[in-house]
Write a sequence for this structure.
């Protein structure tokens, strides 16, 4: 009866241990699946690489944020102290850069920290008010003690029956269809 | 300190590991989240909250009266223009430092024992900074124009004076508060997802769900998350060192004898960590008892914190010693007098109490028995908190009340409103802390699960 449904989000397999899901992810990747995602209650070493994810752009974003913050701080101080609102204090130089360092430093850190948090959230696609995976009742255990591997329906190799059979061959605790 | 080396001299090995044996991913999650999700509130929480809330109301009253009458209700006058407000400000902001130290610096140094206490300590940081931040604002005299401190396009075409340490302070403290909040929130994110999934009530679930932003533990998410978290730790580390350095520059850039000293930045940072660890200890000892979390906040945690207290206490003592030495070495008449006045002037009792609390009291932590004896730890932590408050009193008020011209000397006497604001701020801190304990998981659950995984791995495959 479910067969007539136009599409599903993907197929979700449940595992009981980190080693098991890691092994399953590696085998799924080796089998040619690319639209894979694994879910775990804590970061599992190597799981990201097993599903073919290697580099993240977070460090670059943070670097850019930090540079932007530093330039903003120092630029703002120079602009106001030299050009826009110069104060002559007993003939001391207007470009008194050592005194500008603390604010430059603080803004560097502030901008970099904002880029780290917002960059991480944006790349992760968060906040996300709705996600199909939560239609699977057992998925709530992803934060408890269960590990999941999802093959998404957008995968080129995805076929409801074959993929299901493949996932079952990995000896999971169960395989569930994820409604969109 | 190496957690991998078992300690042979202990009879109860369990009390020395960071996590009790026999815990699973599920059991740690349950234990921590149930503290929040239960509908039963311990009576001791209610008692603490009523004390905190009452004091908070005292703060409200003191602040309302202050806004109505102005800073004249305090004991400040010329020459002591910086009274309790600045003492309290420096005290609170110092307390905050331990949270960032625990969560950021100990993370970078891979000190596993930080895991159970980092969330708690970060929350403490946040609330301590909130308490600190109100004091400079109250002290402004015209608090309604506080935004003049920030650069903004105003019709008067004015800018902040970038060469003033007070402006640096605004940037340092506001950055610190913002970054601490982000660090804390990012750390909470996976646990908020847990809370959402475990909540039994729809309203609660929606609430945690919104805060969790749809976190679902995906491997790619974890990857970026860990990088972002590590980078935040890396950014927080120099930040935390800079904040109290900048605070110390509020003093040291002035020419007042007793302030104008190059040792201030490192000595302030050490003092901040000292007082912060004392506060973490003061808070964890009752909380572990009330919530039966002795297996997570273990004796080893307390032991390690006591060692940190001892080490930073020695650094602070070195600071006192160097201040005295430099005064003598400088041959400056006024600097020498400032030191003599501290030790034998009208406020000498504060100075000697400070020495007793900060230099002498932590020395008991050379002994393991003292480091593992809960009542001793609790009492010493309170003593250190008091001692660090006294230190700021000595620095701010005793330096100011007698500077260059004897004709300008005067005594400073705090009024009832000074005391009300100080105790009121403790009320604000307690209230926020207790609300945090009641409504958010106070131990990082996903990091505990990670620790469980590491422990089972070690057990199964001993290399």
């Amino acid at each position: 009866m479910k067969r007539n449904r136009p599409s599903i989000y993907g197929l979700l397999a449940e595992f009981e241990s980190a080693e098991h899901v890691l092994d399953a992810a590696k085998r799924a990747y080796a089998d040619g699946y690319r639209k894979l995602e694994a879910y775990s209650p804590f970061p599992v070493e190597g799981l990201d690489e097993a599903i073919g994810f290697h580099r993240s752009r977070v460090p670059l974003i943070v670097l850019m944020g930090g540079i932007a913050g530093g330039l903003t701080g120092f630029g703002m101080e120079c602009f106001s102290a030299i050009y826009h609102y110069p104060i002559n204090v007993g003939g001391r130089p207007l470009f008194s850069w050592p005194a500008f360092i603390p604010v430059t430093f603080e803004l560097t850190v502030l901008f970099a920290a904002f880029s780290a948090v917002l960059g991480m959230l944006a790349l992760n696609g968060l906040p996300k008010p709705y996600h199909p995976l939560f239609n699977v009742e057992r998925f709530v255990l992803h934060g408890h003690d269960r590990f999941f591997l999802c093959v998404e329906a957008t995968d080129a190799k995805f076929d409801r029956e074959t993929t299901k059979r493949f996932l079952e061959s990995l000896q999971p605790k169960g395989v569930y269809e994820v409604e969109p | 300190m190496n957690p991998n080396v078992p300690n042979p001299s202990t009879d109860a090995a369990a009390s020395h590991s960071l996590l009790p044996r026999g815990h699973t991913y599920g059991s740690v999650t349950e234990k921590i989240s149930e503290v929040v999700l239960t509908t039963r509130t311990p009576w001791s929480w209610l008692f603490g909250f009523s004390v905190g809330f009452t004091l908070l109301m005292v703060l409200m009253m003191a602040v309302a009266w202050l806004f109505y009458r102005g800073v004249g209700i305090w004991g400040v006058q010329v020459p002591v223009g910086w009274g309790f407000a600045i003492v309290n400000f420096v005290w609170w902001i110092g307390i905050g430092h331990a949270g960032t130290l625990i969560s950021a610096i100990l993370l970078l140094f891979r000190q596993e024992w930080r895991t159970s206490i980092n969330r708690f300590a970060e929350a403490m940081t946040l609330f301590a900074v909130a308490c600190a931040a109100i004091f400079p604002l109250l002290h402004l005299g015209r608090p309604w124009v506080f935004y003049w401190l920030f650069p903004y396009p105003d019709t008067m075409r004015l800018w902040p004076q970038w060469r003033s340490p007070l402006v640096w302070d605004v940037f340092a403290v506001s950055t610190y508060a913002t970054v601490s909040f982000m660090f804390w929130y990012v750390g909470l994110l996976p646990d908020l997802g847990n809370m959402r999934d475990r909540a039994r009530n729809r309203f609660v679930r929606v609430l945690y769900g919104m805060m969790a932003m749809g976190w679902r533990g995906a491997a790619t998410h974890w990857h970026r998350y860990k990088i972002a978290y590590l980078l935040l730790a890396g950014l927080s580390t120099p930040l935390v060192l800079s904040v109290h350095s900048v605070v110390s520059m509020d003093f040291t850039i002035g020419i007042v004898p007793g302030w104008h000293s190059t040792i201030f930045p490192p000595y302030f940072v050490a003092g901040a960590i000292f007082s912060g660890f004392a506060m973490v200890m003061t808070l964890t000892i009752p909380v572990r008892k009330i919530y039966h979390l002795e297996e997570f906040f273990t004796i080893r945690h307390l032991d390690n914190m006591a060692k940190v207290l001892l080490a930073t206490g020695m650094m602070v003592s070195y600071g006192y010693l160097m201040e005295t030495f430099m005064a003598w070495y400088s041959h400056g008449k006024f600097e020498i007098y400032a030191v003599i006045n501290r030790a034998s002037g009208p406020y000498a009792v504060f100075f000697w109490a400070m020495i007793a609390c900060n230099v002498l009291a932590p020395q008991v932590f050379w002994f393991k028995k003292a480091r593992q004896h809960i009542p001793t730890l609790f009492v010493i932590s309170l003593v250190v908190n008091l001692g660090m408050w006294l230190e700021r009193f000595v620095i701010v008020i005793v330096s100011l009340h007698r500077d260059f011209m004897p004709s300008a000397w005067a005594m400073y006497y705090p009024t009832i409103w000074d005391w009300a604001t100080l105790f009121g701020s403790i009320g604000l801190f307690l209230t926020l802390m207790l609300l945090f304990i009641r409504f958010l998981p106070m131990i990082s659950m996903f990091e505990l699960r990670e620790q469980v995984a590491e422990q089972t791995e070690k057990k199964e495959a001993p290399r």
